[in-house]
Specification:
This protein is α/β, with parallel strands linked by helices. It has twelve helices and seven strands. Strands 3-2-1-4-5 form a five-stranded mixed beta sheet. It has a two-stranded antiparallel sheet with strand order 6-7.
Length: about 300
């Protein structure tokens, strides 16, 4: 008998639900009380499937985690491509819920491991930090075309305020990591790697909770650093990276620039690729990928990096 599944399409106001094999459709408010009442009706064997929708799925994840109920949080692009592959071109909340249920029935979707409250809090503060950094960057660009001195003075004041708030957030992020045992232990391991500074470390801890739990191929693919083949018949195209978590990838690029000059294994890798005439961007991607593999193995084995 197939596993019963419930596809859940999320919005800020509602959750549209489609159960299989029954085919029952349902809509409930996206509130804590309504979701908790619905979760009480679920049997332990039902898998709840929904898209990763930042800002809309927090209550659902918290409630399912509290009830120790299995769920699968899938990539929205993957769900959309599954819909197109099955001939579904329409897009409504009810259609999306049904597609998610059908996707779970057709594919062996992995159960998502809930993150700890500390890691979820860290991710929230990292998101806010990114927002402030983007705002500061925009203000700095406006500063060049301020025109009037009074406007330039206002922009300078805003930049100073944003910089202060970013510094406060950095201290709060540092405190969150130090207060949680698992995060602190992983941070201590990462700190032994040249190039992994406080900001990069926080991004990896908050945005890549799977670090140390997957094989090297899966973790590289999750970060969008795994090269994918492009071949057909006798034609062989250049391999390219695609997809993955952009913020994690950007943080690893920054770390790779420093690590490629200080970690002997990465220095040798850089020199080999240069000797073969590889492009600088290709070398940077390869080093970032290898750095991630090293970090993944360190956390799996609970061993710091030994530089000889």
């Amino acid at each position: 008998m197939p596993q019963p599944v419930i596809g859940c399409d999320l919005s800020r106001a509602f959750l549209d639900l489609c159960g299989l094999p029954s085919g029952r459709m349902q809509r409930i408010p996206n509130t804590r009380d309504a979701i908790a009442e619905w979760a009480e009706t679920l049997t332990p064997d039902v898998l709840v499937v929904f898209e990763a929708t930042s800002g809309c799925d927090d209550i659902l994840i918290a409630t399912l985690t509290e009830h120790a109920h299995p769920f699968s949080r899938v990539n929205p692009r993957q769900a959309r491509e599954f819909a197109r592959a099955t001939g579904v071109l329409a897009k409504t909340d009810r259609v999306d819920a049904r597609v998610l249920a059908q996707m779970s029935a057709a594919l062996d979707l992995p159960v998502t491991r809930p993150v700890s409250p500390a890691r979820a809090t860290l991710a929230d503060f990292l998101r806010r930090r990114r927002q402030l950094v983007d705002m500061r960057k925009a203000e700095k660009l406006r500063r060049h075309s301020a025109g009037h001195d009074d406007i330039a003075e206002q922009i300078d004041a805003m930049i100073a305020l944003l910089s202060t708030q970013i510094s406060v957030l950095d201290q709060r992020i540092k405190a969150i990591i130090a207060a949680d045992r698992a995060l602190a232990e992983q941070a201590a391991l990462m700190s032994t790697v040249p190039g992994i500074g406080p900001t990069v470390m926080a991004v990896l801890l908050g945005e890549l909770p799977e670090l140390g739990t997957l094989c090297h191929r899966k973790i590289a693919s999750l970060a969008g650093l795994a090269p994918h083949a492009r071949e057909s018949g006798t034609w062989k195209g250049a391999r390219r990276i695609w997809g993955g978590r952009r913020k994690v990838r950007e943080a690893l690029y920054i770390a790779a620039l420093s690590a490629s000059r200080r970690v002997p294994a990465l220095i040798a890798m850089r020199d080999r690729m240069r000797a073969k005439g590889k492009a600088p961007k290709t070398i940077l991607i390869a080093i970032a990928c290898q750095l991630l593999v090293i970090l993944n193995a360190m956390i799996q084995k609970s061993q710091p990096l030994q530089i000889t």
